[in-house]
Amino acid sequence: MAQDRMSPKERLNGFLTGGHLDRFLCVPLVLNHAARMSGVKIGAHNRDGRIMGECHVEAYRHYGQDLITIFSDTAVLAEALGTELRYPDDDVPRVERPAVTDPDDRSRLRPAAADSGRLGVCLQAIGTAVAAVGDEVAVSCCFAAPFTTAACLRGTDQIARDLYRNKDLTHELLRMSLDLGKRFADAVIDVGGVPVVVDPVATGSVLGEAHFREFALPYLQELHAHIAQRGLPVVLHICGQTSRILDAILEARAALLSLDDIPMAEARDRVGDRVALMGNVRPAQTLLQGTPEDVLREVRALCAIGRQCRGGFVLGSGCEVPIDSPVANVEAMLEGVRQYGSFD
Q1: What is the DSSP letter of 342?
Q2: What is the Cα–Cα distance from 129 to 190, expressed in whole angstroms?
Q3: CA 20, CA 1: separation in Å to the nearest integer?
């Protein structure tokens, strides 16, 4: 196995400052997979910040990825605001009842602080991980962008109709989601974490460019500006197919854009030097269902494309590493970047 010559934190600092790197950064989005690595039930991982943090520390010590990515599910902010969830014992929570099922009834919406409900669990997890390994690796926390949070407050199918029929309510929920997102981003930074914005519903698989510009983009821009004012680079992950909204996504002014279902060569050619790109080893086809050899082939091809990304490149998984991905496949992703992503 090839050996690293820099720590993850040294590598990240070099990436951010334009300094020397021994290889591309590698960030498989190890989220709930960290619980499976530790033999912990997903339900326990999602409800106990100490357990969540310890699971991520254990996964990092095994894989050695360049960024810890604390995460539970995309409804955490919406739950704090009033959406009810169902908790399977060993799977991620699901929206059981959106907070606003009737557009004229806001009674289940409630004010939320930055540490309300499971937001406090995430903050405790960050603190646990920072205390254990923060001297060698940065600890991030993924949380839902305003559009995805608003979709959890209203229901994804319903908000898709509201974009045409009930715009005022949509913008009201977006503003509420943005305000809590800002407060939570501040809290993440205050405990030593790096906020990472994820927007799985505001994807080209759901929104056209016009709707993205009207309902997702302005709120992303304001949230990103807020994070940037705290002195941190803005990281944005968009799930699904993004080809048809990529030009609009670039206007969100992220420093690092993590992409899922788009050819990385297309993204490289279209973004130029406007943003660094991250991606996009296929989660289901390759990390879950493939072999280590499949992973190595994909990593090699992505590193070749990454060398031509003028804004910078980070090797990442296209989306969350599936919970039951074989450990050997995630290991192969790290080994592949050491083999094919070296600059020496």
Answers
A1: B
A2: 14
A3: 22
User: Confidence class of residue 1 from pLDDT cuts 50, 70 and 90?
Assistant: low
Please report the domains of the chain, with CATH numbers, ordered by start residue. 8-340 (3.20.20.210)
**Taking phi first (over 0 means left), then psi (-120 to 50 degrees means alpha), and beta for anything else, what does residue 310 get?**
alpha
Dist CA 292 CA 101 (whole Å): 45
Instruction: Write the pLDDT tens digit of every residue in 271-286.
Output: 999 999 999 999 999 9
> The tokens of 315 are what?
């090797």
Pairing mode of beta strands 84-86, 139-144: unpaired
Report the C-alpha gap between 71 and 53 in whole angstroms.
Answer: 10
Given phi > 0 = left and psi -120 to 50 = alpha, else beta, which region is 323?
Answer: alpha
Structural tokens at position 103: 């557009």
pLDDT at 344 over 90: no
Please, are residues 329 and 287 in contact by the beta-carbon 8 Å criterion? yes
- Cα(258)–Cα(276) distance, rounded to whole angstroms? 9
Torsion-angle region of 39 (φ positive above 0: left; ψ -120 to 50: alpha; else: beta): left
The CB-side HSE value for 311 (13 A sphere, CA atoms) comes to 19
Alpha carbons within 13 angstroms on the beta-carbon side of residue 152 total: 28
Name the pTM for this structure: 0.96
CB 260 within 8 A of CB 240: yes
Q: Are 122 and 52 in contact (CB under 8 A)?
A: yes
